[in-house]
Amino acid sequence: MADLAVWFEASGVLTGAGGVTYAKYRAPRVFWATVGLPVAWGRFAFSYRNTMDVCGLTVQPSGLRAFMSRRIARSEVRPVPPKIRRVWGTSSGLRVTLRLPAGLEPADLASASERLRHAWGVHAVHVIPKKPGYVELRMTGYDVLRRVRMPKKAVPHDLVVPVALRDDGTAYERNYREIPHALTLGANQSGKSMYQRNLVKGLARLPLALVGIDCKRGVEQSRYAPRLSALATNPDDAASLIDVLVAEMEDRFDLLAKHAVSDLWELPEDLRPAPVVVLVDEIAELFLISSKKDEERRERIVTGLIRLAQLSRAVGIYLEICGQRFGSELGKGATMLRAQLTGRVVHRVNDKQTAEMGLNDVAPDSVPAACTIPADRPGQAVAADASGGWGRIRTPLTSVADTVAVCRETVDLIPDLPALEPFRPAIAPVPAPAMPPMPTEAPVIP
Fold this sequence. Notes:
Layout: H1 2-26, H2 28-54, H3 63-72, E1 83-89, E2 93-99, H4 106-111, H5 113-120, E3 124-131, E4 134-140, E5 160-166, E6 171-175, E7 182-185, H6 192-203, E8 209-213, E9 228-232, H7 235-258, E10 276-280, H8 284-287, H9 295-311, E11 317-323, H10 334-339, E12 343-346, H11 352-359, H12 367-371, E13 380-384, E14 390-394, H13 400-409
Parallel strand pairs: 7-11, 7-12, 8-9, 8-10, 10-11
Antiparallel strand pairs: 1-2, 2-4, 3-4, 5-6, 5-14, 12-13, 13-14
Helix pairs in contact: 1-2, 6-13, 7-9
């Protein structure tokens, strides 16, 4: 009987260990919530002071503090680490708010992030400055980009669209009020189309005009036609559409001048025109020409895009440009236009020069990260902006059918912009589901 009890106990232990191992690789959120978070929290709490000391993240105490330690507490004077203000756990990691002592800056902690992650046994440690004197350590317990699950609170609002997941477990949001124009680069099968698909799905839920320019005969953007206010599928139509957008921009500037304001959002709501987001699928198709007679059209397109990039933010017209490469080899005006695109997202590239085109002028440190994106991680990218900050992101898997369904459900959000009406794409009717054949009664044989 005793042997049977021992056998049952051993079986239970083995089953539990097997379940924990399975959860660690197949259900990392479950493993983190049940095992990883308590272990990491305890390791952090017990080793915090020593870890900060050996990593060189402590400073000498003030004279008053040293005097109090020697004379009153009768203890040894020890270096002072950053003071812990708050610790809390999340579904993917651990967050710690620290108050920095005089003599330390966020860059000191960022340079030691790799040593901190090994000391506390977590997947990564990110240092985020919050306000003067305070930083937040965002620890992730596992690779959140392996299976992307967007936070439940990440929903489109105002002009903010969550399109991907950051490697610190937070949502990467495309905020058009802060970053009006952006450039997305990447090789074939790198995830550019998935990124744009998620962007369209989020933008479709907002009351704004979506304008598509897809010179590949519309193979990418024509399926979003129910929600598009305008669509150009060849360079000639694109040139005409850009001219209309420039004219719309000038009319909006006249409206701002009439009401003595400098920004669209300062207008009363009943007078405020709807924002416009212009989605360019492949920028090279607008720059490259096959003959001399196309030179005039190219100049129109390039001049119009540069004017929009320089001026249109104040009137609520935003550019979202995609391409495989975007360098000076495209011709005159390419680098001037690229300089106006503040946001940068670079997926897997075929050469280092392409990554440098997108990132070197805003965040040079991020170029090596973009060059090492593995081919088996479609949708993973490096996101940066003119502030110099950057991070790894990955777009969640979204089917074409889901995005098209959202575009059809949000048709009523299309604003009334008469200037774009001639470019409104035709909407193919939704095929009715096939009806099953009606059963026929068998003839009655007398």
